[in-house]
Design goal:
CATH topology of the largest domain: Four Helix Bundle (Hemerythrin (Met), subunit A)
CATH architecture of the largest domain: Up-down Bundle
Number of domains: 2
Number of helices: 11
Helix content: 55-70%
Strand content: under 5%
Radius of gyration: 22 Å
Strand order of the largest sheet: 1-3-2
Structural class: mainly alpha
Number of strands: 3
Largest sheet: 3 strands, antiparallel
Order of helices and strands: HHEHHEEHHHHHHH
């Protein structure tokens, strides 16, 4: 299966005699720590969203440091950032692991998404342009192609990005970042609770939302977005059957 995202590589700036002399005098680092930290955090987030890192996966600091050719200090900073975003859990003596969100958290994430995204499409429908509709149609075509190719990482990323693209169309980067964070957590929840909502269904629901936006039908757009998010949540196994201990442990006849 083709990889949808090339592995990030560190590209060092060209070295000259002057830069070597200046580096020796000032002892300046080769790359900005903040940039490296963000690169690591974004790569781990992408791996979670694209279902390459599963809930509970151990994130060994030294291994990550070796992959990115940075110090463990920068890795620790990235993991702390992801911990604040609720994508990673940090525990004494156990280290860092991909988070395993609970049922209450899952309900709350989808409740917030429904509130935010219904308001988003209601606001967008009155200002969306024909060019933006064409942009959304192109995104839908990319989704459809990824689904047809069974490109799981690619289709997962594109289906999540659809919602962020909508937020960026109203020019609100704060909202776009908020949605990106919520969608990362939604992807983790879908992995944790084995979503039965297929990629094909999500893609078809996106098409209907864009059709409503193209008609400038605010009521339909809001209703379809709310239904879409509700469908995703309802197809999660958030209420697993509690096994009966007696039945589970009784020897077979």
């Amino acid at each position: 299966m083709p990889r949808s995202r090339a592995q990030l590589q560190v590209i060092a700036p060209p070295t000259t005699a002057h830069s070597v002399r200046r580096t020796r005098r000032t002892a300046a680092p080769e790359r900005a720590p903040a940039g490296a930290t963000q690169r690591i955090a974004e790569s781990i987030t992408a791996a979670i969203v694209e279902r390459r890192l599963m809930p509970g996966t151990k994130l060994a600091e030294q291994k990550i440091a070796d992959i990115f050719k940075v110090s463990r200090t920068l890795v620790r900073q990235a993991l702390n950032q992801l911990s604040r975003d609720r994508l990673v859990t940090l525990e004494p003596a156990r280290g860092a692991h991909v988070a395993m969100p609970g049922v209450d958290e899952a309900h709350q994430v989808f409740e917030v998404r429904a509130m935010v995204e219904s308001a988003l499409v209601r606001h967008l429908v009155s200002r969306i342009t024909d060019e933006q509709i064409a942009q959304l149609r192109a995104h839908l075509a990319a989704e459809r192609d990824a689904v047809a190719r069974t490109d799981v990482p690619g289709r997962t990323r594109l289906l999540a990005d659809f919602h962020v693209v909508l937020a960026r169309m109203i020019g609100n980067e704060v909202l776009a970042q908020l949605l990106a964070d919520l969608l990362s957590r939604s992807s983790l929840i879908s992995l944790m609770y084995q979503s039965a909502h297929s990629a094909e269904h999500s893609q078809q629901e996106h098409v209907r939302i864009v059709d409503a936006l193209a008609r400038r039908d605010a009521r339909a757009a809001v209703r379809l977005m709310e239904q879409h998010i509700d469908n995703v949540e309802r197809n999660l196994r958030l209420d697993p059957r509690t096994p009966d201990l007696t039945a589970a442990l009784r020897p077979e006849a």
